[in-house]
Amino acid sequence: MKDKKIYIAGHKGMVGSAIARKFISEGYKNILGRTSKELNLIRQNDVERFFEEEKPEEVIVAAAKVGGILANSTYRAQFIYENLMIESNIIQAAYKYGAKKLLFLGSSCIYPKLAPQPLKEEYLLTGALEETNEPYAIAKIAGIKLSESYYRQYGCNFISVMPTNLYGPFDNYNLETSHVMPALIRKFHEAKLKASPTVEVWGTGTPKREFLYVEDLADAVYYIMQNVDAKDLYDKGISHINIGTGEDLTISELVGIIADVIGFKGKIEYNSSKPDGTPRKLMDISRLHSLGWHHKTNLQEGIKKAYDWFLENYKG
């Protein structure tokens, strides 16, 4: 069984590369990956040609156009168009060429902005989305419903998972397009190098966020691929499974941990004229816990690992 062909879309990104490393560490030898230069996932003909030639038995959709508040606000059309095309092309080709199983990765931003906390799977589509990342969220919701619909119409074993905020090796540290964790790591690192007296942080510092080390996410994906099938979800009225730690903290608390790990001793200034985003995004992971999976990496340990990787690999 461990010689089956597994296609990981987005295998060079933070999430896809972590998943690939996990499967390889478990003894899988036939992991398929294509860079964006080798395979343009936005072009349906290219995707179908790849599936026709390779016929992967399992597919993990970790490819996506992603970014933080600034990127989501600036590139709204690109975020909805490119993500819709990527997921639609892959899911349709997986059906057409007989993939036995597919797992689609969404994002916690799919939940309504003011949904009750913690976020249960059944809160999907019960209210308005956060304006700053609405196009991306709509695309991800479409991916979840695509996976479910291919099961309901064709019986495909296609499932979806919903990770919380992720961080770790191969994260994006470009300040214009990065998420909060890598942006803060880079900001504090550069401030330390320059001996800057202050660091500016966007927003008020009061929103609460949950963070999962990406190697833990990969472990959860592997566990779910081995233990959960489409019928286990959709026949019970469940559209996806949340993946997270079940613990959150304020941005100001996160800033304090990052400053401590990096060794920044200066002052932190919050720019309240910048957007905060969703007030809180804590995942209810009771369903995942009931399946027998728990995260392993605590936040301080994970940030230390992420910063060590940044020091060794980031070239600016």
Write the layout of secondary structure elements.
Layout: E1 6-9, H1 14-25, E2 31-32, H2 44-54, E3 58-61, H3 69-74, H4 76-96, E4 101-105, H5 134-154, E5 158-163, E6 165-167, H6 180-194, E7 198-202, E8 208-209, E9 211-213, H7 214-227, H8 230-234, E10 241-243, E11 249-250, H9 251-262, E12 267-271, E13 280-281, H10 286-290, H11 299-313
Parallel strand pairs: 1-2, 1-3, 3-4, 4-5, 5-10, 6-9, 7-12, 8-13
Antiparallel strand pairs: 8-11
What does this structure look like?
The chain has a domain of 216 residues: Rossmann fold (3-Layer(aba) Sandwich). Strands 2-1-3-4-5-10 form a 6-stranded parallel beta sheet, sandwiched between helices. The chain is globular, with a radius of gyration of 19 Å. It is an alpha/beta fold and 316 residues long. Helix 2 packs parallel to helix 4 and helix 4 packs parallel to helix 5. The mean pLDDT is 94. Strand 1, helix 1 and strand 2 form a beta-alpha-beta unit.
Features:
316 residues; alpha/beta; Rossmann fold; 3-stranded mixed sheet; 11 helices; 13 strands; 43% helix
